[in-house]
Amino acid sequence: MTRLLILGSANIDHVMNFDFLPESGQTLMSRDYRLEYGGKGANQAVASARLAQPGTRVDFICHVGDDVAGQQLCNAWLSDGIHPDGVHQIAKTSTGNAMIFIDKNGENMIGVSPGANATLTPDALLRHQPLIEAADWLLVQLETPVLSVLNALKLAKYQGCSTILNPAPARTISKELFQLVDIITPNETEAEAITGIEVTDSASAKLAAQMMHQLGLKTVIITLGKQGAYVSSEEFCGLLPGCEVDAIDTVAAGDTFNGALMVALSEGSTIDAAVKFAHRAAAIAVTRAGAQRSIPYRHELAIAPSAP
């Protein structure tokens, strides 16, 4: 049995839709407001669970509050088949929250209050050591304490686990952490934060990928929104176009991509085939409103749009 593990954040998303995103100092009236289940770690865990083949075990290491929102999240993850062993409700703490603004083209701005996510410290991580030791693949982001992410990667690599880092949100990352990562999946903004190179197309993505290889990263996948993803690895190098769809909400697109990528790779797909699989999953997600509720199930990919 293949075991997939995601370590990361869980949030309640407060979502507002606008014709256009506000500028600094500007106040806008939203068209609507809704609550969604989100958080990069949780989104990626849900994507992994919905897209994995039967018999794959998906675990999620995260902290939520001892509030109603935390219990609602836990119940939703159970219904998707995520094992509960790594999920802990922290007493006298609120579940993480995110404020999300979306424009009419599906572009977004996001602010996050970490809440219980911040309590996933290195000491707290010790209780989850057996899950990390048993994992075949580990997927992490940067919405939880970075030292905990580093420690999880160290333990995973010691056990021979394959590792994926989605370096979001963009922040300074140590070279030590990079050397524990098999695959890194930044978007344009995150790639620029790591390398200092403004990434706008496949040519600039290639330069950024080359710099990331110099940091010790073996496989680099830079997502380029509508353009697709630039892949740089020993197995494949080049731009893989995305699927052409009418996007209405891009909030969970990157998270769906990352969860789908791990699933495909764990099933033995080549890196280019795995990215194409991830493109199809993300293409469905962006045509739906919401974060976790937009993420497709495996059977839906059979009729998903293909890249041009």
From TrEMBL:
Its cofactor is Mg(2+). Keywords: ATP-binding, Carbohydrate metabolism, Cytoplasm, Kinase, Magnesium, Metal-binding, Nucleotide-binding, Potassium, Transferase. It is found in: Cytoplasm. It is an enzyme of class 2 (transferase). The active site is at 255 (proton acceptor). It catalyses: D-ribose + ATP = D-ribose 5-phosphate + ADP + H(+). Requires a divalent cation, most likely magnesium in vivo, as an electrophilic catalyst to aid phosphoryl group transfer. It is the chelate of the metal and the nucleotide that is the actual substrate. HAMAP family: Ribokinase. Homodimer. This is Ribokinase. It comes from Shewanella algidipiscicola. The lineage of its organism: Bacteria, Pseudomonadati, Pseudomonadota, Gammaproteobacteria, Alteromonadales.
